[in-house]
TrEMBL record:
CDD domains: CuRO_3_CueO_FtsP. This is Multicopper oxidase CueO. Monomer. The keyword Oxidoreductase applies. Coiled coil: none annotated.
Length: 489
């Protein structure tokens, strides 16, 4: 059992990262996806980024391989993936045991199309139970990856993804209860890129200039093995981009679409490109109504941000470094000129109408150091309990409050975030203030600072059954910071 001290460490009070006395935050004017660009008042910064025996920018960032369908027809694509342990190269020249999809530390990318059904059969050769959640997907409950609905070793399961939603950067990962944090940390994660016709008509960067980048952190021992300590998630000083430590990536002097995913189980990334402007075009649920120019991004666990960076403003030979507050993450090396016919129009995607809400709910997030639990509305997750029953087609407003302003009497507050399955929501306000421009689109995950309340609005349509909402700092959800709603007729 975790001690109170270890729970406080899980909260970050020993590591010092992302901790804020009370709720003292300043909001940046530029829009990151998570709302606030954090400023640390009196708290220690995260440990400096470092990789054992490896200097920054010594390896090239790979782009995850795209999976080829086994069957492809006019209305359907069929894929097969296997979850299995594998020895992979994360640190240069070092073999590391990981949990993988098809042997890759960042699983193969599935490119799907809106309105075109995808079926994926996942086989389990891990030697332990696991399952799969399509994060951001509007899918039937039977294919959502419910925590107790697992694939046992040696078996397989077919997941049905209708793709009846706008184009967006989604991702797939394990969601088996109590083991989700470790499974994701050890490599059960991959991109699912849903594309739609309206994006193609806009002329955004595409093909090799449309690059998915999974950012995350890790801790390695002296042998190069991954170390997972759920009670100290801040002690993960190695920053990875697409599974490699602080890599470089060659680019042409032209515009690139960068799909940034925070695949960490706990870390909040605070990113900048050395003052270079980035144009945010999308968040979790896809394209924003209009582009947002920013120089910094705050991305919490599970969130996605898409930006366009124009490298043509920098001569061949230039190097641009994507930095986190703890150190460099990725270097872009401008190596050649290129013709560029892509563009970023002033209007991207109109938001759907907002129906009148007919119900409101309050969700309060908190840690319980005495009983070593993480709670929503004072209760840990119980799969036998339905926390909210919602009629299909209903629109609701949820007010989510982070009450962890003084964890265990420490004087320090703890950030959480909040992810809802099945739906994409609209952020209405933060403590009564308008959401930042980067939050103007559809979202499924939102960062909530200590003492802060965020209101979101969602319409619960299409499918019946039980779905989850939870903190996507997965060490917190594994401790019980999760609930379930049931869609009924």
């Amino acid at each position: 059992m975790l001690s109170r001290r270890r729970l406080l460490t899980l909260g970050g009070l020993a590591g010092g990262a992302m901790l804020l006395p009370g709720a003292g935050l300043s909001r940046a004017n530029a829009g990151g996806t998570g709302g606030n660009h954090l400023h640390h008042h009196g708290a220690q910064r995260p440990p400096l980024a470092r990789t054992p025996g490896v200097g920054p920018f010594s390896v090239r960032m790979p782009v995850p391989q795209e999976l080829t369908p086994l069957i492809s027809s006019s209305k359907l694509d069929v894929y097969q993936l296997t979850m299995r342990p594998a020895n992979v190269e994360i640190l240069p020249g070092v073999s590391t045991r990981a949990l993988t999809y098809n042997g890759a530390f960042v699983g193969p990318t599935i490119r799907a199309r809106s309105g075109r059904r995808t079926i994926v059969t996942f086989g389990n050769r891990l030697g332990e139970a696991a399952n799969v959640h399509l994060h951001g997907g509007k899918v039937p409950a039977s294919s959502d990856g419910y925590p107790m609905d697992v694939i046992h070793p040696g078996l397989a399961r077919m997941y049905d993804y209708p793709n009846d939603q706008p184009g967006a950067t989604l991702w797939y990962h394990d969601h088996s209860h109590h083991t989700e944090a470790e499974h994701v940390y050890r490599g059960l994660h991959g991109f699912y890129l849903l594309q739609s016709d309206d994006e193609q008509r806009l002329g955004l960067p595409s093909g090799q200039y449309d690059v998915p980048i999974m950012l995350r952190d890790a801790l390695f021992d002296d042998s190069g093995a991954l170390v997972f300590d759920p009670t100290d998630p801040f002690n993960r000083p190695t920053l990875l981009a697409n599974g490699r430590p602080q890599p470089y990536f060659p680019v042409a002097a032209r515009k690139y679409r960068l799909r940034l995913l925070n695949g960490s189980t706990h870390r909040v990334f605070e990113l900048d490109l050395g003052g270079v402007e980035m144009t945010q075009i999308a968040s979790d649920g896809g394209l924003l109504p209009e582009p947002v120019t920013t120089t910094n991004l705050t991305i919490s666990s599970g969130e996605r941000v898409e930006v366009v960076v124009d490298f043509s403003a920098h001569p061949v030979g230039s190097q641009l470094v994507l930095n986190d507050v703890s150190g460099p993450v990725l270097r872009f090396d401008v190596v050649q000129k290129a013709v560029d016919r892509s563009s970023v129009p002033d209007r991207l995607r109109a938001l759907p109408p907002v129906p009148q809400a007919t119900n409101t709910r309050q969700m309060t997030l908190s840690l319980d150091p005495v009983n070593i639990q993480a709670l929503i509305n004072g209760r840990p997750f119980d799969h036998t309990r339905v926390d909210a029953q919602i009629r299909r087609g209903t629109t609701e407003i949820w007010r989510i409050t982070n009450s962890d302003t003084d964890v265990g009497g420490s004087g320090f507050g703890l950030p959480h975030n909040f992810h809802m399955h099945l739906v994409q929501f609209r952020v209405l306000d933060r403590d009564g203030r308008p959401p930042l421009p980067g939050e103007s689109g559809l979202k499924d995950t939102v960062l909530i600072q200590p003492g802060e309340s965020v209101r979101v609005q969602a319409t619960f349509g299409d499918y019946l059954g039980r779905y989850l909402y939870h903190c996507h700092m997965l060490e917190h959800s594994a401790l019980g910071m999760m609930g379930q709603f049931e869609i009924v007729r």
